[in-house]
Amino acid sequence: MAKASEVKSGNILRFNGELVSVEEYIHRTPGNLRAFYQARMRNVKTGKLVEYRFRVDESVEIARVETSDYQYLYEDGDFFVVMDNNTYEQFNIPKFLFGDSARFLKEGMTVIIAFESDEPIMAEAPKSVELEITYTEPDVKGDTSTNALKKATVETGVEIMVPLFINQGEKVRIDTQTGNYIERVK
Fold first, then answer.
1. Which of 40, 113, 123, 125 is 20 to 30 A (C-alpha) from 32?
2. Considering 124, 156, 174, which residue would you say is the last residue of a domain?
3. What is the CATH number of the domain that holds 16?
4. Rounded-to-integer distance, Cα 140 and Cα 53, Å
């Protein structure tokens, strides 16, 4: 157990039986009242925001979280199988930890996984990925002056919107958070 004064932004705490990530941690000393720490924390599993005031001498439990890079191997039901690049040990990571970016994962990609006592608590896909267009309508000559978009299917099976000049077989960079087209890869 640690004191509230030892907590910093970015720590993972066990708070009311749940794991929370400290987003903002401010020391307050209002006038003639006692000092306290104002904390804004986000639940790791649900994403729900929690605000709490810690007394200066209050005990808190800082969770021991280990974050590392892993290689995504394949999909197995409700899990993604990833491998530790150093020990070659494989782990089953629940799909929901990746959120919406899971649909852009391709075999061999590097992902970031955080474990707390052998339990995966956070998973993060790369910010952007390069994927090949497997199907899109052919472009029409002279139709490039506007910012018009058309549907295209990438190699993971996801349909995205791309500019009219993108053709089948080309590689594009995609933002995994929003699913938006960023640029054509040469």
1. 40
2. 124
3. 2.30.30.30
4. 61
The answer to whether 148 and 128 are in contact (CB under 8 A) is: no
Each residue's pLDDT tens digit, 37-85: 999 999 988 889 999 999 999 999 999 888 899 999 999 999 999 999 8
Q: How far apart are CA 54 and CA 34, in angstroms?
A: 11
Angstrom distance (rounded) from CA 38 to CA 35? 10
Q: Same structural domain for residues 69 and 120?
A: yes
DSSP 136: E
Reported as a single tens digit per residue, the pLDDT across 81-128 is 999 989 999 999 999 888 889 999 999 999 999 998 888 888 999 999
Q: In what order do the strands lie in the sheet with 59-62?
A: 2-3, 59-62, 12-15, 18-28, 36-43, 49-55
Q: Biggest alpha carbon distance in the chain?
A: 74
CA nearest neighbour of 115 among 72, 68, 65: 65
Residue 116 shares a structural domain with residue 133 = no
From 27, 45, 62, give the residue that closes a domain. Answer: 62
Note down the domain range covering 8: 2-62
Cβ-based neighbours of 137, under 8 Å, separated by 6 or more: 150, 151
Query: Is the pTM for the entire model greater than 0.85?
Result: no
